[in-house]
Amino acid sequence: MAPQHRPRRARIAFSDSAAKQLENITSAAEIHALDRALVVISVDPDIGEPIPGDTTGPQLRQYTDDVEQVRILYFVTALRTVVVVAYIEV
Known about the structure:
About 25% of the residues lie in helices and about 30% in strands. By secondary structure, the chain is of the alpha+beta class. A hairpin with a 4-residue loop joins β3 (about 60-65) and β4.
């Protein structure tokens, strides 16, 4: 019997604006909150709620972690790469 593998986590990438937001994070608590939310999204990229809008491009989604008070805007590519557009504190 072949061993069963867990599904691979999605790869996380950041847009230029999200990367600039990351550069400004100095608090360990903010880094922890962001890491927690990114792990959740990498395990299940479809967890976020779709944001209504233009249907010609990738579907923009938002994930809110109420425990850590974090909201992340992102989209998922065809190869299941999660591209974070913005990291927004709630």
